[in-house]
Design brief:
Elements lengths: L9 H9 L5 H32 L4 H14 L15 H4 L2 H7 L5 H17 L1
């Protein structure tokens, strides 16, 4: 199996990103993975920014301290599956997996989400 064929699994998506592309298919798979990660990260950034502004807790010192701790934590490789604790892990998940694993959506909620996405996609 090649990396593009494994690109649905988070760990394989991570490996895909760190391995130099050997051919155009691997390069395309890397670009698709990066694009999905970037969009997911931007979605979360905007939600968190809105929450901070609404709560009035957007203090610069708190943000700086939390960001530095997060960056240090991303270098921790102790324990079982340490990559699951790193800040980038959730961004490696496909949309459905993210909704299920991170947000804890039930099968019914996922189905409703997918129906709404389909309706919006058709309408635009």
């Amino acid at each position: 199996m090649t990396y593009p064929e494994l690109a649905d699994e988070p760990l394989h998506r991570l490996l895909l990103l760190v391995k130099p592309a050997g051919d155009i298919d691997e390069l395309n798979a890397q670009l698709a993975c990066l694009r999905e990660m970037l969009f997911r990260a931007l979605q979360e950034i905007e939600v968190l920014r809105a929450l901070l502004l609404e709560s009035g807790d957007g203090r610069q010192g708190t943000y700086r301290e939390l960001l530095v701790r997060r960056m240090i934590g991303d270098h921790d490789s102790a324990g079982v599956d340490p990559h699951r604790r790193h800040s980038y892990f959730r961004h490696l998940l496909k949309e459905r997996d993210f909704l299920q694993q991170v947000l804890g959506m039930s099968d019914e909620e996922l189905l409703a989400f997918e129906r709404e996405v389909e309706e919006v996609s058709i309408a635009t």
